[in-house]
């Protein structure tokens, strides 16, 4: 089912190698072609077809190791919603990551990838009784999002004769200065228990049969480019920990969530895991010492682990000179939803003419029957023609995982690159995927 491509088809002779994006980059320009590690992305697109998600194994491992170096004593739970590819999850497991899961489906996938149950946190603001049962049976910790959920969960645990270990999701009321649709720690957001109610709720949980409260959890938002909100959230979490301790509670785990942004735009640099550590560790460590507690610190990075590992390759179908210069490619918001949903910027390069000078201004649009199907607006690019392959960079987080079959578009394949090897980790869907699970009702057959 999974194919290994012939290496020699993808590697072209190396005339000039130019590192494109930073000194340790997995993306280089060689003889005017975009390379990921030692694989020619243009040749790969020709061979596999497009749209195509392509991920660098070495970059993924390096990103995880950067977190381990910055936070040697913390657990890192990969936020599976960012990328649920089984092979990438397997690599995350090999590199010692746990997982933040947000559904029973994500839980099944990470268990299959080999992530130990002790390193999984089952999150969610809207869990059903079945979700609670599944998490209890799987023996994973849950993050409880409300006082109401606590009571529901206690009933289920009691009925099952089991004990559920829980953290409480805190709404710390911190503004992360990011797109409003992905700010989660604001007072007005649907997530978490208002900070001032958490200690009391914790105390209630301590007296409930079937429930063992072990810690606190928050997540203030995503694509955050400033470390100050993280420091503010860490301080508020430690205030709550102090209140819990004062009520006789035990705090074994403090989970500060994910959210560290990445550099999508050449002019908008992002903090590194080291910067994040410098902002939050002193607060965490000092306050723990003052309180005389030694909880485990947990982080839940998604984007900063996978975004820059991956490019999305797409082929130009039409270059149309109208009131606007449109480039219509074979991927739309069905493949990469972020630009449409959040007006996100993804840097675009031409995979077979990477060093060519920009000559034209283009708006890159997809094949979907909606005017909003714009992937990149007013970009300066070399003159394009039908058959050119564009690479959308930093597509590894919330790329494939948010892809849909809208407009009868099967989802694309995913490939993992390692050195000069390119292996399909998820094959492309075909039209049969559009029919999966469907039937024509027998009474309508005649
Ligand atoms: N933990 C929790 C509880 C979360 O809700 C999230 C993301 C994360 C961790 C990981 O955050 P990260 O490190 O990836 O920022 N689809 C949007 C992003 C939604 C994020 C939702 N929660 C996008 O494409 O920008």
Describe the protein's architecture and organization.
- By secondary structure, this protein is of the alpha/beta class.
- 30% of the residues lie in helices and 24% in strands.
- It has 13 helices and 22 strands.
- Strands 5, 15, 16, 17, 18, 19, 20, 21 and 22 form a 9-stranded mixed sheet that branches. An 8-stranded parallel barrel has the order 6-7-8-9-10-12-13-14, surrounded by 6 helices.
- A hairpin with a 7-residue loop joins strand 1 and strand 2.
- The longest helix is centred in the middle third of the chain and has 19 residues.
- The radius of gyration is 23 Å and the shape is globular.
- The protein starts with 6 loop residues before the first helix and ends in an 11-residue tail after the last helix.
- 45% of the residues are buried.
- The structure holds ligand LLP.
- The site of ligand LLP has 23 residues, from helix 11 and helix 12.
Question: Topology of this structure?
Answer:
Blueprint: H1 7-10, E1 17-19, E2 27-30, E3 33-36, E4 39-40, H2 41-48, E5 52-56, H3 57-70, E6 75-79, H4 86-94, E7 98-101, H5 104-112, E8 120-122, H6 129-138, E9 141-144, H7 147-160, E10 164-171, E11 193-194, H8 195-206, E12 211-217, H9 228-246, E13 253-255, H10 273-291, E14 296-299, H11 303-306, E15 310-321, E16 325-329, H12 338-342, E17 348-350, E18 360-365, E19 374-381, E20 389-392, E21 413-418, E22 421-426, H13 431-435
Parallel strand pairs: 5-21, 6-7, 6-14, 7-8, 8-9, 9-10, 10-11, 10-12, 12-13, 13-14, 16-18
Antiparallel strand pairs: 1-2, 2-3, 3-4, 5-15, 15-16, 15-20, 17-20, 18-19, 21-22
Helix pairs in contact: 3-10, 6-7, 8-9, 9-10
Bound molecules: ligand LLP.
Ligand LLP binds next to helix 11 and helix 12.
